Every structure is written in structure tokens, then in C-alpha cells.
Amino acid sequence: MIVKILGTGCKKCQTLEAKVRDLVAVNNIDAEVEKITDIQEMLKYGIMMTPGLIINEKVKSFGIIPKDDQIISWLKEV
Amino acid sequence: MKNGVLKLNRNIFLIPAILLPLWFLLYLNLENFAILIVDSLMKLPQGNHLTSAISFFIFELPKVLLLLILIVFVVGVVRTYFSPERTRKILGGKKLLAGNVSASLLGIVTPFCSCSAIPLFLGFVESGVPLGVTFSFLIAAPMINEVALVLLFGLFGWKTALMYVSTGLIIAMFSGFVIGKLKFEKYVEDWVYKTKAAHPEIEEAKISFTQRITSGFDAVKEIVGKVWVYVVIGIAVGAGIHGYVPENFMASLMGKSAWWSVPVAVVIGVPMYSNAAGIIPIVQALLEKGASLGTVLAFMMSVIGLSLPETIILKKVLKIQLIVAFISIVAAGIIIVGYLFNLIY
User: Fold this and answer.
1) Is A70 a catalytic residue?
2) What is the CATH number of domain A2-77?
3) Gap between the Cα atoms of A60 and B290, Å rounded
4) What span, in angstroms and rounded, lies between the C-alpha atoms of A21 and A32?
5) Which of chain B's residues have a Cβ under 8 Å away from the Cβ of A8?
6) Which residues of B touch A62 (CB under 8 A)?
7) What is the pTM of this model?
8) For residue A57, what is the nearest residue in chain B, using CA coordinates?
9) Measured torsion, CA atoms of residues A27, A13, A44, B90, in degrees rounded to the nearest 10
10) Per-residue model confidence (pLDDT) at position B6
């Protein structure tokens, strides 16, 4: 599974990235976490608020830092 | 398990229902509390500088914090009704002027943070929202923010708060309209109009009322958690000025008679990047010491509305000519507003 965090480097984006990496490691989920900072790349997903959370090319959330259990359930449903 | 969740959800309605009367009880009795503390508990002598500063602090700080919590909560709930997607759809078909008006108004209620300025700008422009209309939004969104509004209301009263919102709106509409009329599209970086952004229908999840209430609480936690330090520092400095700086001290520097005070205030204000929470209590204290409202308003707007970091971020999508034009037009708008208020009051 490929997880992408879209963000330009604001505080929220860094928080989300750290959180996702942490959750993936703690729950032993087989996922590759990538951080996307390139704006043109971000545009492909059509989000207008950062950070964006993309799991297997699907936009799961944007503009917010989702709750831990919400992220875990997204990671596990794939 | 499911029952447990339901119960919790139902209870969340109760929290604001209980807290709200409590809030009013506290808020309406603040002055009594402050007098009680200063006179009876601390037994400070009346009429000296220190007492004056301490009473100011003890009364103003809880007042502003209480207002902040309530308003940030309400705004947090209201914002769940306005997503950027929805705002973009509303603005998509709009022409100039009507578009500038609605963009400025939507700028107040749409959730916005300056780190999202670029994706938002691109999202708007590429889906066909006119450049001038997009700018109206980008000017109104940071300029009219709830923290500034609370502080203005709490420290100056509703008239100044209302004036701030309306002049902010007028500047956003006017500047966006001018940028639109000048046909500045050519100064947007070339790739912006070339790349076609994908607009996959991001499923707009149905939000329950419970979730909206939760967002309100989240907003309080996030925003109040971030700005309370600045509020405390700002009010402390304000209290110091209130108690120690002589009356009319500022009159010669920031008073009406000093014609140059408005542009100077703006020039100093633009590169300053302070949040509203820290700047407004200081500004209020200055006003009391003889600075004029127009000058102070101009200073505040240039600090809050035009921030250098945000402008630097925009460099990624705008050519330098447009950035310069953007700053000058908004600054000109602020200066006009400053003079106008100095003239009226």
C-alpha cells in the first residue's frame, strides 16, 4: 500500500506525516509512506487545503489532521 | 460498543448547553470579580500606576479569553458548513464585481490557513474563478479573522469591530476588482494555466451535527491553544502602557494632526508578522493615549492582512509584478481607510 502526505511544509503537514509514520510502524502495517511537497504533483489530487492524506491514490482527508483511530481504520480497510 | 458511541454522541450536545449559561454567568460578573480581587484580596492602593495596570490586566484578560473561546467555537461550527470546494463552486460562474462581493464575504467563513494559500489559489484559478475574484478571497480570508474580531469587540466595543469587518470587506472587494480590471492574468506563472488540475469529485462526507460541535471544540483547542500566550503578553504590555504611559503621549506620533502617520503605520505594519492576538491589546492601549483610530486601524490591517511570509509563498505561483501590484493596491486601500477614519472621528 502507498500512503502519500501532501503538504508544503506547514506545521500541520509535518504533524500528520509523523503521525502516519508512527501509526504504520506501531500497527505493523505494510505501507510505504511518502511526503509530496511538489505543488504540481499535489494538484493532481485536486485538494485545496493541506495537509492531504492519500491512500492508494484515493483522497482520504484534507485540511485536517484526522483522529488516530480514523487513520488506522483507513489503513486497515485496504 | 455501538450503544456506547451513541451515548457519547448524545452527550456532546449537553456540553455546550451546560457551558453556555456558565459562560454568561462568568462573563457578566467579571467586573465584580476584578474589583473583588484588586480591592479586597490584593488590597492595592487606589489611583497609582501599578494598581491601574493590574486592574486592567485582571479585568481584560479573562474577558478576552472568554470571548475568544465562545467566538472561536461558533466560528468552528459555522465553518463546517463552508468547505473550499463549496466556495469554489459558488464563485465559479461569477463575473467581476458580483464575484468580488461574494468572494470577500466567503473569505470570512471559509476555513483558511496561510499555508494552504497556494493549493487554494490554484484550485480556484484553474477551475475558472476569475483572478480578481480569487484575490478578493485571498485578501479577505486572512484579514478578517475571528481572533482579531474578538479582540476588537472585547477591547474596543462592537462599533470598532463592525467597522473593522466592513472596511476589511471593502478593501478586499476593491483590491480584487482592480486586479481583475487590470487583466493581470499574464503575471501568473505560466504553468498555472497550462496544467489542468484534476477535479476528482472528492466525496463530501455528510457531516452530522455532532461532528460539527466536535469541530467547534477542536477549533477552540487548536486556536485558543495557540494564541492564548500572545493574548496574555499583549494584554500585559497593554496594561503596562495603560498604567504608566502618560495621557496624550501618542498624540504627536500617531495622532490626527500628524498627516504622515497613516502611511508610516502601513509601511511599518506590512513587514511585521504578528498575529492579531498580540498586536491588538497594545494598539488599544496606544489609542487610549491619544493615537487616532484611523492610524491604528491602518496599522492593524497592514500587520494582519498583508503578511510577508504569505506573500513569499505566493511567489511560487505569481510573477513579481503581480505580487508588487497586489501589495500596493491593498496597502493603498488600507491607507485610504486610515485617512477616512481620521477624517470622520
Assistant:
1) no
2) 3.40.30.10
3) 53
4) 9
5) 115, 118-119, 313
6) 202
7) 0.79
8) B200
9) 120
10) 44
Question: Quick check: A63 and B198 CB within 8 A?
Answer: no
Q: What is the mean pLDDT of chain B?
A: 81
* Identity of the residue numbered B176: G
What are B50's three cell numbers? 501599578
Question: Residue B306 in contact with residue B230, Cβ under 8 Å?
Answer: no
Q: Specify the DSSP element, H or E, that contains B173.
A: helix B158-181
Rounded Cα distance, B154 and B3, in Å: 42
Query: Where do we find the cell 465584580?
Result: B32
B26 touches chain A (CB under 8 A): no
CB-count burial class (<10 Å; 0-12, 13-18, 19+) for B326? buried
Rounded Cα gap, residues A19 and A61, in angstroms: 14
User: What is the complex's ipTM, to 2 decimals?
Assistant: 0.75
CA-to-CA distance for A73 and B267, rounded, in angstroms? Answer: 51
Residue A59: enclosing H or E segment and its boundaries? strand A58-62
Find, among B102, B133, B186, B161, the residue nearest to B297 by Cα: B161
Is residue A13 among the annotated active site residues?
yes
- In the set A1, A2, A10, A39, the catalytic residue is A10
At residue B247, does pLDDT exceed 60? yes
- Checking if the pLDDT of B131 tops 60, the result is yes
CB contact under 8 A, B122 and A12: no
Distance CA B126, CA B124 (A): 6
Please give the average per-residue pLDDT across B63-91, as a whole number: 87
Q: How far apart are CA B9 and CA B56, in angstroms?
A: 41
How remote is the C-alpha of B41 from its chain's centroid?
36
Q: Rounded distance, CA B258 to CA B264, Å?
A: 10
Put simply, the answer to whether A39 touches B118 (Cβ < 8 Å) is yes
Amino acid letter for position B216: G
- Between the two ends of chain A, the Cα-to-Cα distance in Å is 8
- Closest-CA residue in chain B for A67? B218
The minimal CB distance from A44 to the residues B111, B123, B198 is found for: B198
As to burial, measured by CB atoms within 10 angstroms (0-12 exposed, 13-18 middle, 19+ buried), residue B96 is middle
